[in-house]
Amino acid sequence: VDTVKSDLVVNGRVLALPLFVDSLALYYNKGIFNASGIARPPQTWNEVHDVVRRTVRFNPVEQGQIDQHGIAIGSGRNVNRAPDILSALLLQNVPRNEHGDPALVTPEGEVTFGQDERAQKALQFLTDFASPAKDIYTWQLASDYSIDAFAEGEAAMMLNYSYHIPTVRAKNSRMNFAVAPFPQLAGTAPEDRTTYASYWAFAVSRQSPNPQAAWELVRFLTSAAAARDYLKRTGYPPARGDLVAELQNDPVIGVFAEQSLYARTWRQPDNRVVDRVFTEALDDVVSGRDSVEGALRRAAEQIQAAAAAALGPRSP
């Protein structure tokens, strides 16, 4: 699928190959939707806002206490994969380069979103869900962890990957929930849809004593037959475009399979640094410790520093 080519083919050379490509999608509680008179899951962020307003429930006694969340997003530490959710919104808002990839980082490794107004808009948009001043206020720093809140019926929606379907079922086997595509900006053309991709890939070390045999193993594992067997056993969405056609109508992972055709990611010098600084940026804005502009600028500076460290010292 396209994101693999964009991420892992450099100057015509294949650096690695994955077996699966997972992506963020919308989990929704069908029981809460039915009780609120909502017939279908939201497709755009404007519709998400409408669902949040119709499903959030505030405690009638304890002022400001939320008994039922419209969606479990807005902050950092108590939202599973919050950095990925922020990345998805950045990818939806920033412009794309000549190759069709979202321009968060230049090919030379320069982080470009730190002072981008569209990137600031994305961070503001996400933290608004945790702002008491907004009419979509539905999440708090003190809320339960997002997966627990959703599985316990305390949240109408959450954003997550396919591998948490068994997690939710294990936590609440009687829960009536479903999964829909990741929400898009209003007016987004089908060819411009974007969600965030997450996957691991097989690579062969430059120090391998037998690189030819190692690459033959990688090619075998990622061939159609072997990958089909792997996906059947694990339930993961496919990384191969020819397998998407076979799985996009699957009742469990069909949404994720189809999304793999347009899921995207961005080159990160150190994903652990990105996870940390994006989480801090979200919580700093929600808590009022920093502004949207300041939090995003500091996050970009720390990611840029990680990129410089990854390159190592340069010769004079």
Explained architecture:
With 316 residues, the protein is α+β, with helices and mostly antiparallel strands. It has helices at residues 2-8, 30-35, 45-55, 82-93, 117-127, 146-151, 165-171, 211-221, 224-234, 241-247, 254-259, 271-287, 292-311, and strands at residues 9-10, 13-14, 17-18, 22-23, 25-29, 57-58, 66-68, 157-160, 177-180, 195-198, 201-202, 263-264. The strands form five sheets. It has a three-stranded mixed beta sheet with strand order 4-10-12. A three-stranded antiparallel beta sheet has the order 8-5-9. A two-stranded antiparallel ribbon has the order 1-2. Strand 6 and strand 7 (66-68) form a beta hairpin. It is globular, with a radius of gyration of 20 Å. It starts with a helix and ends in a 5-residue tail after the last helix. The model has no long low-confidence stretch (mean pLDDT 94).
Largest sheet strand order = 4-10-12
The secondary-structure class comes to alpha+beta
Secondary structure: helix percent: 40-55%
SSE sequence, one letter per element: HEEEEEHHEEHHHEHEEEHHHHEHH
List keywords for this structure.
11% strand; 13 helices; alpha+beta; three-stranded mixed β-sheet; three-stranded antiparallel β-sheet; 316 residues
In a nutshell, what does this entry contain?
It is built from 13 helices and twelve strands. By secondary structure, it is of the alpha+beta class.
Write the topology of this structure.
Elements: H1 2-8, E1 9-10, E2 13-14, E3 17-18, E4 22-23, E5 25-29, H2 30-35, H3 45-55, E6 57-58, E7 66-68, H4 82-93, H5 117-127, H6 146-151, E8 157-160, H7 165-171, E9 177-180, E10 195-198, E11 201-202, H8 211-221, H9 224-234, H10 241-247, H11 254-259, E12 263-264, H12 271-287, H13 292-311
Parallel strand pairs: 10-12
Antiparallel strand pairs: 1-2, 3-11, 4-10, 5-8, 5-9, 6-7
